[in-house]
Protein 1
Amino acid sequence: MDTEKKVIFSGIQPSGDLTLGNYLGAIKNWVRLQEDYDCYFCVVDLHAITVKQVPKDLRRRTLEVLSIYIAAGINPEKATLFIQSHVPSHSEASWLLTCNSYIGELGRMTQYKDKSKKMGDSINAGLFVYPVLMAADILLYNADLVPVGKDQKQHLELARDIAERFNKAYSPTFTIPEGYIPPAGAKIMDLQDPTKKMSKSTDNPNGCILIMDSPEVIRKKVSRAVTDSIGIVNYTEDQPGVQNLINIICAIKNISPEEVVKSYEGKGYADLKKDAAEIIIAELSPLQEKVKGLLDNKEYLESIYKKGAEKANYISQKTLRKMQKKIGFIPR
Ligand code: AMP
Ligand code: TRP
């Protein structure tokens, strides 16, 4: 029975085309976890508008992200798949939690510091309270586990702090969520600058493999990946480019870095790159075909996100009503 299972919540922003980092850091692990948990996977469009979006691209990407979830192997019959803006409790709970969050703690978030630096004088307030909305997402479903990439660890810790504070100020309301950060795909780095995480919002498209990139493009990007002058395939911090390629292989094939290093004894970077490219293509090609099929079937997608929103609305409203009551609002 679903009700006995522990709960997972996670989400991805439709703010740019999804990358291999999103796939290996998040989605691929969701697929593995879905059998054992009651899962909620959300397309977090409210988060996406903390940076400027072109409306028609946002619409296209929202459905594409949903299609990628399904194509990657999330079973919509088991997991609840929905679009964040279809479930108003997220915005409502977010306000209640904003009034229980501190400017100091929000200002310490590294993602805020990085993103706001690029925005000059017009930093929108949404970017600042973004982690509170993320806390609302997680806490409304009383999630036990939140599978995310390493870059979200700080936000997750803040969600725990906010939950504990609310529980203490009123009475026990929220489950305190744990993070689940995968061993191999936790931080896929930029191919052109392996000290930086691979990101949708990169300035150099060659550094970033998109889930929907064609085989030719993937071969080209991987063959140009920055390595080093050492020339031996080894898994060390001194060879971040090589380490990143090894991590990609490990995350896809579910093997250890030692196994990869061993199979390249006596071989060079060219072999490693060639194999890495083919491994990525073999993983992504079937998924891409399914995404294209799903995007041609908008009615099916609509049936999934409508059903998902219905369940998410039901569950999240129960938590929201509890919060409102404890705060002192008159029940409606
Ligand atoms: P975002 O693209 O910021 O919406 O991130 C969605 C999910 O993908 C989060 O769980 C991130 O931690 C994860 N993620 C994003 N970029 C990477 C990356 N380069 N390596 C590993 N995980 C990532
Ligand atoms: N902030 C997350 C990111 O950029 C996306 C996200 C929003 C999320 N709400 C969430 C992830 C809740 C996990 C749980 O990656």
Note: The beta strands are 6-12, 37-43, 80-83, 145-147, 178-180.
Protein 2
Amino acid sequence: MIEFGGRVAVVTGAGGGLGRSYALELARRGARVVVNDLGGGVDGSGASTKSADLVVDEITSAGGEAVASYDSVAETSGGEAIVGRALDSYGQIDIVVNNAGILRDRSFSNMSREELEGVLATHLFGGFNVSQPAFKAMKDANYGRFVFTSSNAGIFGNFGQTNYGAAKAGLVGLSNVIAIEGAKYGIQSNVIAPAARTRMTEDLLGPMADLLDPEQVMPMVVYLCAEENPYTHEIFTAGGGRYGRIFIGTNEGWFAGRNVVPTVEEIADRIEEIRDISAYEVPLSSSEEIMIIGRALGGS
Ligand code: NAI
């Protein structure tokens, strides 16, 4: 049995959709949970205490422990207040699920700076704002689990989502570095790329929507939050009952030779070898990629 007794979790954007199901399950398994939600619309406009309160009520009426937080992850002070809510209420913070998010889709030519900034502020800066104060507390306790919410739209790309895609890809970088810096303190960080029917996606999923229950994403995320999870620095995908791993790898490539500057024509001649991904590795830091270069140099 995977239990969270004695653990304290913050789930951002937990007033509905995916975040709600994570918060409910973490609480059901014994975690004390900070249910954070600004309570605005899908585009981030407005605010309300209602959605976070409802989830806290659901948790407490089922015998669990939770408190609400209505702060915005998009503000530095909001991130501090959300983590402060965990520390003031429960004296510790063990788990952060960075899940809050908004959409402001527009094709690249028409995207405004406000649309870019609003989406970066919520997802990317939001992940930073909440995780930095949490990381400091976790370091002192020598334990922590982060989950960052990315998206296939950021990792693979999607029409009309340059702002969202940039933010979601940025979160992969944020999580990777936190995983490296946190390792010696028992802090792990992973990424989830979910696919689920929520208010954010109900108009986008088409006929598959009925088969993409947010509850199906929940077990993967809750596992990543568990002490039993030994993995860090990874990206997982979950949707419609399929669970998998997404990874960023590099291939064998083509080695031109030590101190050799190939011509542009040689690159053209070798481009398929340079692109070939039939053999690849998944480096877990920039130095691991440099080692691959070093190996090629050593072998010349
Ligand atoms: P949702 O709209 O139901 O949930 C997002 C929640 O975040 C909302 O309750 C919203 O009020 C809250 N929120 C927004 N801005 C906030 C802020 N500044 N501070 C605090 N809370 C804020 O949508 P869903 O689908 O549950 O999304 C959860 C996460 O999963 C998001 O990060 C989303 O981008 C991501 N995602 C969802 C996918 C899906 O298929 N549903 C696909 C890929 C990623």
Note: The longest helix spans residues 113-141.
